[in-house]
């Protein structure tokens, strides 16, 4: 099924959590703005001036607005199942003066037309919410299926092997990082419980295997901040449009 894009000017509903997201994310995710900036700069190196971008899990639209503001010839389609996040994204895109070049869909990538029409895709801080029971694979495969042959993907995710001492150390350092940025101890504890309960981290080798199975190649690491990593990849040539 293809979900219709939401009407950007008519999106008024705001959930408090979506608003809070923008207030706290930079104090919770190390180098959040740098990750977005580096992703945009890498895309700029890789894409033509009239590129069409797919932003999977666009959330409150921060990366989408920045990509479009920096590249006046680009257009972008964002998808996210959270209408509250999309309502904030719609406002942000308008405020950045790029709303006319943006389309927002209240759904997962699987709901978008299954046509290889995009020049690039990003999946930033999204896939770790999905269990490794076929859901991660489905997200990557559906994204690959909407990319032109050899089109780049930028993926960033919380990752690692939760069973290792190294990962436990990184998580402890992450808690310390949040404390240094003013997150109250009870919120840090709640966040860690949420990670243990709901965030499906996989080791690097598994991340690469998932990307390869979805038809991506040329997988390169470009970002690392404690338990957060970022990779570039390309849809294998010969597949897609
Ligand atoms: C941590 S936010 C990241 C948002 C944005 N990419 C950023 O960097 O700020 C994760 C977003 O992924 C969305 N999400 C969760 N599951 C998804 C899925 N299967 N497909 C697309 N988006 C999804 C959530 O609704 C949420 O808005």
- Amount of helix: 40-55%
Mean pLDDT over the full residue set: 93
What CATH architecture label applies?
3-Layer(aba) Sandwich
**What would CATH call the class?**
Alpha Beta
Q: Report the total helices.
A: 8
Question: How does the overall form come out from the CA principal axes?
Answer: globular
The secondary-structure element order is: HHEHEHEEHEHHHEE
Low-pLDDT runs of 5+ residues are 8-13
Strand order of the largest sheet: 3-2-1-4-5-7-6
> In the CATH scheme, what's the topology name?
Rossmann fold
What is the β-strand count? 7
Protein name: tRNA (Cmo5U34)-methyltransferase
Keywords: Methyltransferase, Transferase
InterPro entries: Methyltransf_12, SAM-dependent_MTases_sf
GO biological process, one term: methylation
In short:
The chain has 8 helices and 7 strands. The protein has 241 residues and is of the alpha/beta class.
For this entry, give a set of tags.
241 residues, alpha/beta, Rossmann fold
Describe the structure.
The chain has helices spanning 16-28, 32-46, 62-70, 83-95, 135-144, 165-180, 185-198, 204-213; strands at 52-56, 75-79, 102-105, 120-124, 152-158, 216-225, 228-235. It has a single domain, classed as Rossmann fold. It has 241 residues and is α/β, with parallel strands linked by helices. Helix 3 (62-70) links the parallel strand 1 (52-56) and strand 2 (75-79). The protein contains eight helices and seven strands, in the order H-H-E-H-E-H-E-E-H-E-H-H-H-E-E. Strands 3-2-1-4-5-7-6 form a seven-stranded mixed beta sheet, with helices on both faces. S-adenosylmethionine binds at residues 56-59, 62-63, 79-82, 85, 108-109, 124-126, 129-130, 139.
